Amino acid sequence: MVSETWGTVTTRMLTQGRWAARARYRDVDGRTRQIERIGRTKQKAEALLREAMRDRIKPLGDGELNPETRLADLAIVWWDEFSHTSRSNGTLRRYEAVLDKYVVPNLGGWMIREASVSKLDRFIKQTARLNGYSNASIAVVLLTGMFAMAVRHDAIESNPMKSVAPVEEPDHQVATFSLEDVAELREILARWDAGLDASGRRRGTDLADPVDFFLGTGCRPGEVFALMWEDVDFTIQPFTVDIHRTMAKNREGRWTVQNKTKTGGGRRLFLPTFVGKMLLRRRVESFSELVFPSSTLTPRIPDNFRLQWHIALKGTRFEGRVPKEFRSTVATALRDAVGLERAQHQLGHSTYATTEQSYLPRVVQVPDSTAILERFNVRGDSGAGLS
């Protein structure tokens, strides 16, 4: 029999001031799995991790699920299967966090036969109330999959999650920027980029140009910062850009360039004139294969861009606004001018039926919307000369 062992424990401080401790753990089935625990201090995180590894429940072999199996055991068997599917690294990290933080701690001691619809329904409602809609929705996905496996193993007759009430999505307002907002924002960011930092040196934030690209395309931040010069075609009018990469976190939580977009497909976009002129200027000045690299010419991390954005807008009327609102701004402008279908293609939202998702992704030649997007080429009066 293979014994349980674990490797070196590594720690890192998170942005919220908390600590994460992580180690690779070799289970009794011979598989190596990565385990992470988070604590208020480095020592607390390490203690929680070592406790989790000491108390780890041994995985079951195939065919061993039965009505007496604990949900903690079921979760391990199901996750081992689910984590080897074609889900993105970001999805797997998010799902594993909900499984470890909410599902197993609250339900892990139940036996499969004890998991009634009423109990599961109360758990989902409580999770939504205490931990939010997103975590509750993911818990529904996880538990539905777990009990589907239990049904396949004849450990239960039917999936109780099918009768659990849907998670009620909270109402939320879609935030957009008006043309007046866009004019003022572009002026603020251009002045910020051209200003000096506390040491009297020119800032290297590069906020204004990416924002112009957001406005002229509606792209996601990850897509913008994964963009390479080879994706831009300056030989035709209007210029075009192929969007087929994105920045994404891998299973270890590190940002990397992923050779597919969030929805898996690619799209070719026409660029409005103001974006084309900006890209031509950057191309002449560029020393990187990336269009919008970091200050060290490496792929720019979206989290760092958002941090710089919030610093630049602190004390303005835009404090608290977020860059993703540019996507809804572009979507609203296109929907109102030329219809919802054009907006969906421009932003790269999936329109395929579920049965078509296994086909190879196609590059959609998006209709020319540059005349509409050119309207965002505005600045306040005091911003003259900052082009």
TrEMBL record:
The chain crosses the membrane at residues 132-151. Keywords: DNA integration, DNA recombination, DNA-binding, Membrane, Transmembrane, Transmembrane helix. It holds the Pfam family Phage_integrase. It comes from the Bacteria. Gene3D superfamilies: 1.10.150.130, Intergrase catalytic core. The keyword DNA-binding applies. Residues 172-374 form the Tyr recombinase domain. SUPFAM superfamilies: DNA breaking-rejoining enzymes (SSF56349). Belongs to the 'phage' integrase family. This is Tyrosine-type recombinase/integrase. It comes from Leifsonia williamsii.
